[in-house]
Amino acid sequence: MNRKKPASLHASDQPLLDLCLALKQSGCIVEDRYWENLIQTSLLDIFKQNRKKTVERLLDHLSDSDSETHDILLENAETLSESCEWVHEGVTYDCVFVAIPVIAWTRFEIPLPILDGAAQQALGTLLGQHIAASDVRMAIHPQILSVDQMPRSFTGVFQWMMAITGKVFGTHVRSVVPVDDLSEDMQLMSDSRFVLAALCTPKGQPVFRWQQAQGPFSEQRQACLESWRTAATPLFQKLLPACGIELMLPDAFYIANRQADKRIRYAAITAATQWLQTVFDTTPDAFRATVALYQDEALREIRIGFTLLQSHEVIYGCLWPVFPDETEDQQLETINDFAQLNTLLEHLQNNGIRHITCLKEVLDGSSDVSDEPLFPNPAGELMPVMMPDVSEDPIGRFH
């Protein structure tokens, strides 16, 4: 797998790049604010003109050559596409585009239900009690969505935000992004689900409940998450029947998505072990998990191959992506260098997997030409998944 060559910049990309470079060179906060204002004005023009690839092309260009400027552009693009100011009846509101993540796993199909009026009202009440600050006005998009149905560009996120925020104030905002009747690319046994909402508060006032709570502010997010899970889990169990679920903290769009991406790794292992037990009609101690670090020029992840105890044939595989902030640019020479290895192994054990082999040698995928991921067996070989002969086709081959 070779890293894709960055796209060539267009002449229209240069002004925004120049502003970001100027901000990087700034020597004081007053100058910072000047450049930030111009960057934000430029980004808003890009979003409103529906120039979907401009920011992504610049980020791709900067990813290897200038990480500081890359991060400046990324931070501003995320901020401008997930938040805005809105004036209504003479009052200026700070508005945040919020994602409400749910991690789900099942042997069946994870549904994508439409939220009827009662469900939207119940969800709004729960958000008001456990997540939103006291003076917040909100609107909820009336459908539970998969990742495949979510906006994928900064321009798309901005358009969704404006459309849903407009509903808060009874304003119809035309969006070129379809928000209904979208399908998933692939059905999986474990996946994330999202409800999207807009939370709006008078300018300068708290938008989230943890900003208003008494006591140490740094502890309040966790307290809100715990109360949210207790109160909202019954509602989502009705909306997603026959699924195991874990609620994540509703938060601004990008951070909520990142946290869900990390947490889905745990659900994938849980779904895999439950499925294997059902298919083979046995207990989890009949299986071995082989854990290996896999990397090439463009990819770094943990791959987990499941085999029967007396076999080297891989019958199932799980992917555990390694995110950049989990390595802090550390070079991983062996799997033992991965700081979260013990957490991963503990989760396997909590799901009943007692036989675990960790391969110290890093598996090099630079010569891998397979269209589908290969998974390690106890001998250290990367193998394709050989699905067991079962009467019912499983949903999804790997996660």
Explain the overall architecture:
The longest helix has 28 residues, at 253-280. Strands 1, 2, 3, 4, 5 and 6 form a six-stranded antiparallel beta sheet that branches. Strands 9-8-7-10 form a four-stranded mixed beta sheet, covered by helices on one side. With 399 residues, the chain is an alpha+beta fold. β7 and β8 (300-308) form a beta hairpin. It contains nine helices and twelve strands. It has helices at 14-25, 29-48, 54-65, 67-82, 117-130, 154-168, 220-239, 253-280, 341-350, and strands at residues 83-88, 91-105, 137-140, 190-202, 244-247, 251-252, 287-295, 300-308, 316-321, 355-364, 375-376, 382-383. 37% of the residues lie in helices and 21% in strands.
Task: Chart the SSEs and their pairings.
Elements (H helix, E strand, L loop, with lengths): L13 H12 L3 H20 L5 H12 L1 H16 E6 L2 E15 L11 H14 L6 E4 L13 H15 L21 E13 L17 H20 L4 E4 L3 E2 H28 L6 E9 L4 E9 L7 E6 L19 H10 L4 E10 L10 E2 L5 E2 L16
Helix pairs in contact: 1-2, 1-4, 2-4, 3-4, 4-6, 5-7
At a glance:
The chain has 399 residues and is α+β, with helices and mostly antiparallel strands. 37% of the residues lie in helices and 21% in strands.
Order of helices and strands: HHHHEEHEHEHEEHEEEHEEE
Give the low-pLDDT segments: 391-399
Query: What is the percentage of strand-forming residues?
Result: 15-25%
Query: What is the C-alpha radius of gyration, as a whole number of Å?
Result: 23 Å
Helix/strand-derived category reads: alpha+beta
Task: Summarize the main sheet.
Answer: 6 strands, antiparallel
What percent of residues adopt helix (DSSP H or I)?
25-40%
Shape: globular
How confident overall, as mean pLDDT?
88
Number of helical segments with 4 or more residues: 9
By DSSP, the count of extended strands is: 12
* End-to-end Cα distance: 20 Å
